[in-house]
Fold this protein.
Amino acid sequence: SNRFVLIAGPCAIESEEMTMMVAAKLKEICEELDIHLIFKSSFDKANRSSVKAPRGLGMKRGLEILQRVKTELDLPIVTDVHEAWQCAEVAKVADMLQIPAFLSRQTDLLVAAAQTGKIVNVKKGQFMAPWDMKNVIDKLRDSGNENILLCERGSSFGYNNLVVDMTGLVEMRSYGFPVVFDATHAVQKPGGQGTSTGGNREMVPYLMRAALAVGVDAIFAEVHPDPDHAFSDGPNQIHLSRIKEILEQAIAIDNITKQLAVSNKQQ
Amino acid sequence: SNRFVLIAGPCAIESEEMTMMVAAKLKEICEELDIHLIFKSSFDKANRSSVKAPRGLGMKRGLEILQRVKTELDLPIVTDVHEAWQCAEVAKVADMLQIPAFLSRQTDLLVAAAQTGKIVNVKKGQFMAPWDMKNVIDKLRDSGNENILLCERGSSFGYNNLVVDMTGLVEMRSYGFPVVFDATHAVQKPGGQGTSTGGNREMVPYLMRAALAVGVDAIFAEVHPDPDHAFSDGPNQIHLSRIKEILEQAIAIDNITKQLAVSNKQQ
Amino acid sequence: SNRFVLIAGPCAIESEEMTMMVAAKLKEICEELDIHLIFKSSFDKANRSSVKAPRGLGMKRGLEILQRVKTELDLPIVTDVHEAWQCAEVAKVADMLQIPAFLSRQTDLLVAAAQTGKIVNVKKGQFMAPWDMKNVIDKLRDSGNENILLCERGSSFGYNNLVVDMTGLVEMRSYGFPVVFDATHAVQKPGGQGTSTGGNREMVPYLMRAALAVGVDAIFAEVHPDPDHAFSDGPNQIHLSRIKEILEQAIAIDNITKQLAVSNKQQ
Amino acid sequence: SNRFVLIAGPCAIESEEMTMMVAAKLKEICEELDIHLIFKSSFDKANRSSVKAPRGLGMKRGLEILQRVKTELDLPIVTDVHEAWQCAEVAKVADMLQIPAFLSRQTDLLVAAAQTGKIVNVKKGQFMAPWDMKNVIDKLRDSGNENILLCERGSSFGYNNLVVDMTGLVEMRSYGFPVVFDATHAVQKPGGQGTSTGGNREMVPYLMRAALAVGVDAIFAEVHPDPDHAFSDGPNQIHLSRIKEILEQAIAIDNITKQLAVSNKQQ
């Protein structure tokens, strides 16, 4: 199957119980929909707008919980790293390491992530052009790792706003690595609520469909059982109760795009 | 049918022969694909980058040719107006008047266009937010015209570049008027070639599919039998020989989106 | 003297009395400060956000009032034109014709303005790069007019915001024509108040000083005796009671910059 | 004296000899011009566009050289930190720690820098609004440090370009901490040369003068004896032979602005 892969989970590991519950529910939905799921959750929100905002359970406890998801639910795991020394430790549990957008040009972090041999998913900085990712790819390849994902999560557009340039997805795909569209961070309004980041979760299904109509290899989406009370990223996370319906829309568009791609190749 | 309407034709009325040929060919394709076609071509390119660039055949000759398209091919006609005095004259031939993006806040032009009673298609200025179009709507409604189309053609994104904010399509649709996506102007690089505007026609099908996956009521696309030698907008016009295939892709996506919309309403 | 020229006046000709009063007061201040003043006011606000917003007294009455300013106060006059047919009429009174930013690529308007033989002040569109003005210059020169001013009034920066790229002033000055900095429109928040344009008049003196420190030939500023009750552009017009103090700051900076320029040339 | 402080030095510590030479020369110039100098150079360029680009001599060797500048030339030292663990070590030598723009929201780095008790100079991220810096201030203050500098180095403006919003300097100054204008990074074209960042060093004096005319407390500028052969940031560093003349211009503008500020306070 060439269906899009789904990278999903709650933004932060808020508790073991909630993490297991969301992972189990996502697994059930994805099995029903025949979607390959990679479970994502963060052990530390390292760049919160405010120092008072909760950051999560920390690396040690977070990795224990992710290991439980991996073992009990048999799901591959991705989580994000923030400083180079974390990579080796995180790689003991995670199948994929994620580089946050603000850190996408930090050479040491990229090299350390690459050297784990795990898949590396790099979010394109909000301050970068699609073609700037070629240098990121080179940093990872020169470190001996070809298992690279390039992730679009929006570009700075004036103050406290992002815009998604859909042509960037086409551009990045031409570099020969799978492209991920991060549908929930793309609707953020950075800093838009004074001491926290706003967002518009109603727009998630629309941008997800648009990206899949352009053609992407994976969708990234943060999902929460109660977004309005989430630790982080509440305004842009999808409610767990809505994710199935949104994925059904996504599959319908993706099926068409993948058929078009096959038919283009056959011509 | 709730399939998207197509507004298409060569950017400029370069000659009677070419205009008739393209109109006939587009009509044939759209009949085959069951798409409602509105023929578009401009009698004057009033805001060329350079004064030396050709501008077209002028209003009198242009309207004669558009009248021939209308009569002989039985196609509805849209063309753009640049100063208020042109509206009444153009409305004798055109079924729809188009307001260019740079002129989308010129009150006299909007009022004169509205007062013809014809449909008015307003291109959102590259300097406007989606919600700024509410004031445009009010200008037209206050002039007694409710036959309004809102057209997205990209927003200024730094110098010599545009970006399409796909969430703007959702926003504008919420105002209760049909929304058009202009797939060929959205790929322009304004002023990007020094004395003319560049563009990237390869991106047209991708943006068209993205907009249709979000949900729009009409697609606008400029089509030319030999874009590299077009009077104007060469870098972004679609080659006439490719339009059928691009429309087939568009229909495939649009069918899904319109089904999703119906199923959402039924829930 | 190489001191900056001041182009100033109330945004709109609201009444004969107010226009004469402001013009007389500005004249008095500029004589005291040894600044060359060109009086500016608009007979029509042709691109208001809302159709309900007042537009001014119209061309006929407006030109009569501007003629009175010219005759009685012996001040040169500039006012803006919106459609080509207005240029010849306006040129009977005005010493300088101004092209609004949204219209800065309308070839017919530029040509008609150029053909009056009057000085033409073109506001750079919010959607244009500084170097895009080279095409505007060519349009005017090819129409036989070398009396050109290039005016910076800010660039689109996300939605409902402008930013001034101060390096654009240097770039435009290199084209050999005087450069104007429009200090009051540069602080606008276009569409930022829903049905009208917002602004931040507190920032005017800062941007004016910045532009003069870079080096410009003229300052454009709208001045009103009661900005909070102005027809138009209230949030960004300067209060008449504050203009003298702001100009004194401007002179202090301009004197230094012009000295630096002289000293650079002597090296 | 309320004259601006100068934070300057070569972008990277390329060698002991070159570092000492530039520091000595800058010290001599600043003594002559009565400018307070803080010497800046980086031991590691941690976010180069390309992994192949040189990064500097590393932390240990770099700090030894900075210590020599401090001891032999009696200059205060600032250098940038990239991961939290570096802060305590760097603070043994540096009088001020600098947070790179891409890292300006990394809570751990800000907290670790604050906890050294040294002055912390935070570069505003290219993806941040001026008011987003209030959260950065809170992170530092909540960590017990009130010795904060806020530094403007440009905002993302489309792809591969930055723009300086001069009104942001006024906004940030209103928060009660000194504001620095980084005149050399503000002229960068990020990623603009494919595998490296471009820039336009000719614009540095203009932006520096503009910022000083608005009013800032310090100027940041990278200076190199041979910018075209610099390890890093060649296109935007100032040639050492030009810095004196540029500073003389800066002083002339700063003197006026500081006089205006004093006269405003007296009113």
Notes: Chain A touches chain D at residues 46-52, 55, 82-85, 102-103, 105-108, 110-111, 125-129, 131-132, 134-135, 138-139, 142-143, 155-156, 159-160, 190-191, 194-195 (CB under 8 Å). The longest strand of chain A covers residues 218-224.
